[in-house]
Structure formats: C-alpha cells, structure tokens
Design a protein that fits this description.
Blueprint (H helix, E strand, L loop, with lengths): L5 E4 L5 H11 L7 H8 L4 E7 L5 E10 L2 E9 L8 H18 L2
Antiparallel strand pairs: 1-2, 2-3, 3-4
The protein binds coenzyme A (COA).
C-alpha cells in the first residue's frame, strides 16, 4: 500500500522529529542535531521531509547540489512507515528539486 505524503522543507519542522527517525535509521553512526542545524543552513544543501496526512513525519532526505550534480547526503523512512513508497516519493522530490534549481535557480 502506498502512503500519500506531503513534502515540506525541514527548516519548517521541529528537528526533534528528524532526530527521532535519524536515531533509529542509523543507530550506530547517526548525525547529531548540530550536524542537521549546520546542514540546513548550508546554501548548497536541500533538506526536506515527508509528512503523513495526520502530520507525522514519515521520512526525510538531504542532498547537496554542485553545478549540475546532486549528491544525496541522507535518506531515511521511519520504521512505522517503511515499504509504503515514502522513500520513492522522496526520491522523486529530489529529482523535482534538482530540476527547479538547475532551470529556475
Ligand atoms: C532504505 C529506506 C530509506 C527505504 O525506505 P522506504 O520508504 O521503506 O522505501 P520505499 O517503500 O519507497 O521502497 C521503494 C523500493 O525500494 C526497495 N526497498 C525498500 N526497502 C528495501 C529493503 N529493506 N530491502 C530491499 N529492497 C527495499 C524496494 O524495491 C521498494 O519497492 P517495493 O516495496 O515496491 O518492493 C529505509 O529502509 C530506511 O530508512 N533505512 C535506514 C536508513 C538507510 O539505510 N538509508 C539509505 C542509505 S543512506
């Protein structure tokens, strides 16, 4: 079953929710809250997240764009929402964001 999510910039969201997913997605080597704060203020970076219809955070991603190349720095889905197409939706959003930045910077 596909979970319909809406995508928002992480800057608009409470970082506690990001950290909750980060810590379970990467238990042994997760980023710190400060790392996320630094990344979000990096002008080359884009960080966005997926919200369920109820407003829960289902997942997030980040990428750096350098000229016409994008480097995905992270992507994770909350264990409760895995195998429901969330990461796939996030990947499509990465592609959309890249096009916007290259063609409508
Ligand atoms: C990897 C991860 C982001 C996938 O998230 P997700 O929302 O469950 O992925 P989707 O439901 O969009 O899956 C899309 C496709 O990816 C593949 N896939 C997803 N999880 C998979 C798994 N555990 N094993 C094999 N294939 C998988 C499948 O082809 C799937 O399509 P299907 O469900 O129709 O078979 C999630 O498991 C996660 O957060 N893992 C921990 C963090 C991580 O490893 N991040 C990636 C490395 S940076």
């Amino acid at each position: 079953m596909i979970l319909k999510v809406s995508i928002k910039d992480i800057a608009e969201i409470d970082l506690d929710e990001v950290m909750e997913i980060e810590e379970v997605a990467y238990p042994n080597h997760h980023w710190s809250r400060v790392s996320f704060e630094n990344e979000i203020s990096n002008k080359l970076a884009t960080y966005r997240c997926a919200l369920t219809p109820k407003g829960d955070m289902a997942g997030f991603y980040g990428f750096w764009q350098i000229l016409e190349e994008a480097h995905i720095t992270t992507i994770a889905t909350h264990p409760d929402f895995r195998r429901q197409g969330v990461a796939k939706t996030l990947m499509f959003d990465i592609i959309d964001e890249c096009y916007k930045k290259v063609y409508h910077p």
